[in-house]
Amino acid sequence: LCQEFPDVFAWSYEDLKGFNPNLAQHTIELDPNTKPVRQKQRPVNPHMEPLMRKELDKLIESRIIFPIKHSSWVANLVPVRKKSGEIRLCVDFRDLNRASLKDHYPLPSMEQILQVVAGSERFSLLDGYSGFNQIMVKEEDQFKTAFTTKWGTYAYKKMPFGLSNAGATFQRAMDMAFKGLINKIVLIYLDDITVFSKNAADHFFHLRQVFQRCRKFGVSLNPKKCIFLAHEGKLLGHIVSKEGLAIDPERVEAIRALPLPSHKKALQSFLGRINFVRRFVPDFAALVKPITKMLRKSMAFKWTAEGKESFEAIKEAISQAPTLINPDFSKDFILYAFGGDDTISAILVQQNKDNDEQPIAFFSQSLDDCEVRYSFIEKHVLAVIRSLKKFKHLVSNNKVQLLVSHAGVKDFLLNKDLNEKRAGWITRVMEYDIEIKITKLVRGKGLCEQLASKQPDNPEDEEDVVLLLQDDQKQENDDVSTPCWTQNMIHFLQTGMCPPEMSKAKRRYFRLQAVPYVLVDGVLFKKDINGVLLRCIGTGQVERILHEFHDGEAGGHFTPRVTALKIMKAGYYWPTVFNDCYSWVKKCKKCAFFTGKGRLAALPLRPISVDHPFMQWGLDFIGVINPNSSQGHKWILTATDYFTKWTEAVALKEASESNILDFYEEIATRFGVPATIISDNALAFIGSKITEWAVKNGIYLSTSSNYYPQ
C-alpha cells in the first residue's frame, strides 16, 4: 500500500508538496490600531552560527523562506537545540501575535479523541512531515513574518511555527481534507493522524481512503514517525489498545521520579502534571487535598507529614491506575456517586461479556467552603449532578443505572414536595434517563478504590459499594493477626466445620450464630438487619475505636447506647460492643464530672426598654471572614438600633479602635448622638480613645457580662 502511494510521504523538505492553496492559506489579520514592530537583532552564540546557517540554507532550498529587503515587521531568530544535537529555528513572533486578530477555530477534545480510538483492534499512527510548513502564507501577508539574521532578513512563504493562529489554520485545513472520514475511521489532532479500525480486515481499506485524501489535498506524511497495523500505540501522551486507554508508562515513571517540590511554583507544576491523568485515578481530589491546601495565600509553604503522605499516595495511585475501557453505546451505563466530607467522587462503568464491571472514567472534585456545609444527602446528590454533567457527552442518549449508597438520595431525587433548591437540582437530573438503585454497603473501604480494583470471584460481592472512613485502610493493614474471638467463626465459614471441642448443643447454637457472618477477601463481616456489612473488630482495636467515637473528633461524650449505635452505624462490630461502651463511658472523667450535675434554672429574661428611635445602639463584629474579600476586608462591624431594629454595617480590614471610632462618628452625624452604646468586652470597644469620646459626648458605654452575655 505504501508503494502504491509513495507521493504521500516526504523524506525531506524538498519532498514537501504543500496543501492545495484552494483548500487552505494562512492569513495574518492585524488590529488596525497597532503599529508595526521592528525588533533589534540579538547576539547569537558563535558555536550555533554554523548550524543556523545550515538550517537556513535548507529552508531556502525548500522554498519555505525567502530573502526580503523591506518589511515593517521584523522579529528575531531563536535557535533551539534538539536532543539529537541539531537545532530548530524558531522566531520570536510575540509582537506580531499581540497585534493579530485571533482565529477561534477549535481544536478537537483530546478526551473525546482518546475515547473514540480506544478499544479498536488495529491502529495506524501517522505524523505530518513538518506539518505547519505544508500550508502557504497568503502572499500579501508574507512580509509580516520577516525575521533578521546576520546574513540578512528573510520571510516565510509557508506557515511557520509560533504564529498565534497557525494551529487554527492547520486544524481547519485537516478537517476539510478528511471531511466525512473523521470519527468514523480517522481522527485528526493537528498533524497527528490516527487511523483506527474495529476489526483488522477493514484496516487496509481505511488506510487506502486516508492515503487517497493525502494525495488529493497534498498532505505529506513523515515515514520515519508513522506506525502501521499496531495493536496498541502511543497517542497524545496515552497508550491506546483494544483493551482500552491507559497512561503512558514513560509518563508514570517520570511522575514517580519527581522529587518533593521545594516551593509553591514547583508544587503548582507537579499538580499540573498529575492533573493530566486525573481521570484514571479514583478519588483524585481527596488524594491531593492536603497538597492543594499548601497553595493557599494564607498558609506558609511547609511540608507536613500529611502532605508528604499525600504526595507519595498520589504517585502510587497513578502507578497503579487501571486501564479505562471504551464506552459501548449499545449498553446501559452504571454510575456510582459518593459525597465525602470535603470532596465528591464518582465512577462510570459498564459490564463486559462476563458481567464484570469495568471503569470508563473516574470523576472527583473538591467542595468549596459553602458546599462543605451541605448535609450528607445533599453532598451525595451534588456528586450525582456534577458527575452526570461531567459525563454528559457519554450518557446523554443512554440509560444510566445510578447506584447510591443511601435511600435518602433516592428520596431526594424522587420526592414531589419540592423547595426552590431541590427543584433546581432535580431539573439538572431530569434530562437524563436514570434508574436509581440502592446498593448493599461494605463499610470501611473506599468507593472508587474497590471499583477500580479486580472484581471478586463471588458475583454477590460485585454489588457491594463501600464508604470511606477515617483510618480504615490503616486499620486493615494493622489487622494482620486474626482476632481471637473470630477464629472459630472464620474457620467455620471457610470449612463448614465447628470446633471439635464444642458440645452438640453448642454446635447447633454456633451454626445459628454464624448465619449473619460472611467473609469478604478474607476479612470477617457481620450483616445487620438492613443488609449492611459491619467489619468485625479484634480486641486490640476496641479501645482505639471507643476513644474515637466517644472522646475523639467523631464523638461527643454520648451515652453508652448512643456511642454503640454510632460505632455500628460507622460500620464496626464486636459481640460485646454495648457492654464495652457502658464500661468506657462509666470510666470517662468528663462524663463523670459533667453528667447529672444540678444546674440552676435560667433567670427570667429582662427586656430592654427604649423610649425613642436611635437612643440606644448595639455594636458587634462579624469575623474573621475567610476567605477575605477581594479588597482585603476581614471584618464586618454592625450597629443595630434597639427601637427600630435599623442596622448599619461597614466592612473593615482591621478590628481597630480608630475604625470603631470612625463608625461611631458616622452614626452620630446621621442619626444623632445616642444615649447608650452596648457592646461586648472586646478591647477595641472599651479602649481609651472610645471611652474619652463617649465621656465628651455624654454617652454611656454598656458592656455585656464576661463569659455569659445576655
Write up what this structure looks like:
By secondary structure, the chain is of the alpha/beta class. It folds into five domains: about 5-230, HIV Type 1 Reverse Transcriptase, subunit A, domain 1 (HIV Type 1 Reverse Transcriptase, Chain A, domain 1, Roll), CATH 3.10.10; about 245-320, Alpha-Beta Plaits, CATH 3.30.70; about 335-465, Roll (Ubiquitin-like (UB roll)); about 470-595, Endonuclease III, domain 1 (Orthogonal Bundle), CATH 1.10.340.70; about 615-705, Nucleotidyltransferase, domain 5 (2-Layer Sandwich), CATH 3.30.420. It has a five-stranded mixed sheet with strand order 2-8-7-3-4, with helices on one face. Strands 17-16-15-18-19 form a five-stranded mixed sheet. α18 (about 540-550) crosses α20 and α19 (about 560-570) crosses α20. The radius of gyration is 35 Å and the shape is flat.
